[in-house]
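so my prof wants the structure for this chain in the tokens format not the other one, which i didnt know existed until like an hour ago. anyway here's the sequence
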Amino acid sequence: MKSLLDKVYDPEEFRKNGHMLVDLMADCLNDNLSRKKDKVINYIPPDTNYERWSHLAFENPAAFFTEVMNNSIQLQHPRYLGHQVTVPAPMAALAGFEGMMLNSGGAIYEMSAASSTLEKLVIDQLKGFFGLDEGDGIITSGGTLANLTALICARNVKAPEDVWNEGQKEKYAFMVSEEAHYCIDRAVRVMGWGDDGVIKIPVDDQYRMRVELLPSYHADAKNKGITVLGVVGSAPTTSTGIYDDLQAIGTYCSDHNIWFHIDAAHGGPAVFSEKYKHLMDGCNMADSITVDAHKMMMTPSLTTMLFFKNSKDSYRTFAQKAQYLWSASDEEWFNYGKRTMECTKIMLSTRVYALMSIYGMEIFGAYVDRCYDLGRKFAEIISADSMFELAVTPQSNIVCFRIKGENTDETNALNRRIRQILLEDGSFYIVQTMLKEKVYLRVSIMNPFTDTSDVEALLKRIGELLDK
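here's what i got, hopefully its the right format
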């Protein structure tokens, strides 16, 4: 008689349930892409959902997996227009599934030969698109962690003291756009720099960093006894999808011998597009670049690449010894535990490599073009409708618009209410953002099968709600 453990690890049970799950998810993908599903989200208030799950029981694995799918947002639905989370390509998802089952510890090569080797191969094959003919990099778990890693490295390289070994005695800061992602502020605070560690540079009417203000803010910090170690450019900002002038920022950093980091978590893959790669002009000047493959490269979360212009910088972030893991102190590209925050790394490289090797590099440009093109088309549709106004002409697949109104407070309340109704209705999923004290409805076109009819239907649905 089989023990419980024998049953848990039974290969035939795994085969049967695996086939069942893939069938369920393939049917779900088909129903979404064909728009057979009429809702993107079946919204249930958190406390209600907790209570509901507390009383659920499942007769078999199929019932459990089905309930999870039904209680989850449907990213594959063309009317998902919400947060910057990609629709994973099935091949990349399968690579992720294989990685979860193999569960190799990616900190050291002997535990993860395939994953570690492919990590270097992915970085080496992609870095040239960012103008980094030399350089190196890592793949890590998310943009927040990648940005933190880059800023720690910048501190270790540019600070006039050995902070890593001796602790910090001076005050340091990075200059960032006031529209930069909040994880930059969080990273600086994790390093213990407090309010003074983030110097926020105002943006212009297009929500780009005002690079001409860098000298005055830099000088002011110096007068306060703060050493500015670098500047973080956004490519693009999260709220508006607008790219900073990377060329100008890079020139300033080069002239002042400070670190230039680009948070290109969302928009870095524009480099793969002939049509949109100009948005990343100047990225070759960066000392480090963060790129989320789980935003605009069709891989499951979390899969983030961090590129370094100088190969040696990739080894300067974490300089610890762990004798039970490795015996040499040399720069070993294959032992990634020396270069990442994670002491256990899941298999991330295979997700990206699967797409590169099977479909070719052009798949990434095709995805960017499809999503960015529709962002611009949607903006044209909005501009032609007297009911709405744009926050700014979009450069990417992020579009911010609002219902017009004379009174700001009342109009803000109206836009918030419309967004909440859409959430509870579930036929579309969009989010909202605040720009210069105005609430905007915010769309991120992440599904390559979203088309003009979908965004037109969104505006029509909003109009219907206003008439009620």
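also thought this was worth mentioning. The chain has three domains: 4-77, 96-359, 362-467.
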